[in-house]
Design brief:
Layout (H helix, E strand, L loop, with lengths): L3 E3 L5 H19 L3 H5 L2 E8 L5 E3 H12 L7 E14 L2 E12 L10 E2 L2 E7 L2 E8 L8
Parallel strand pairs: 1-4, 2-8
Antiparallel strand pairs: 2-3, 4-5, 5-6, 5-7, 7-8
Length: 142
């Protein structure tokens, strides 16, 4: 899949940087790198995890992450693919991501194995940080 961009004229370097940051989320998840994952968030970030719990501020995000990330990939892995980047302003962007959890053999999990996270990024002093995020599970059509 090729990512789409709004506006299409968004700077190539910004596109590249945000795709690389989503790849860093993927790496941190795969390697259960708590510090690497947390380093992507702004201090005042708001995160809604896959279970629908709203976490406000890096302290709550950190407490949650330290409780769930270690050991999370013991029986599999996860992949992230940027589907869309919307530049709201030159220094605020939303990344829409396709997330797929995999079993130990690298096959997609049949149940509760996909997600559709969105990350709102803000650039301060040249560095992009997550200021808000929503990790939404994808369920079969009803």
């Amino acid at each position: 899949m090729t990512a789409t961009f709004t506006p299409v004229s968004a700077p190539e370097q910004d596109r590249h940087d945000l795709i690389a940051l989503v790849a860093e989320i993927e790496r941190a998840q795969q390697q259960e790198d708590v510090e690497g994952f947390l380093s992507l968030f702004a201090p005042t970030a708001v995160w809604v995890n896959g279970a629908g719990t709203r976490l406000i501020g890096i302290e709550e995000i950190s407490e949650f992450t330290r409780g769930v990330l270690p050991g999370a990939m013991a029986d599999g892995s996860v992949t992230y693919e940027v589907e869309h980047i919307a530049f709201i302003t030159p220094d605020v962007a939303l990344t829409g991501v396709r997330q797929q959890y995999l079993d130990a053999a690298g096959r997609p999990l049949a149940e509760d194995g996909a997600g559709s996270p969105s990350y709102l990024w803000s650039r301060t002093d040249g560095s992009w940080k997550i200021v808000a995020g929503q990790n939404t599970a994808v369920v079969a059509s009803y």
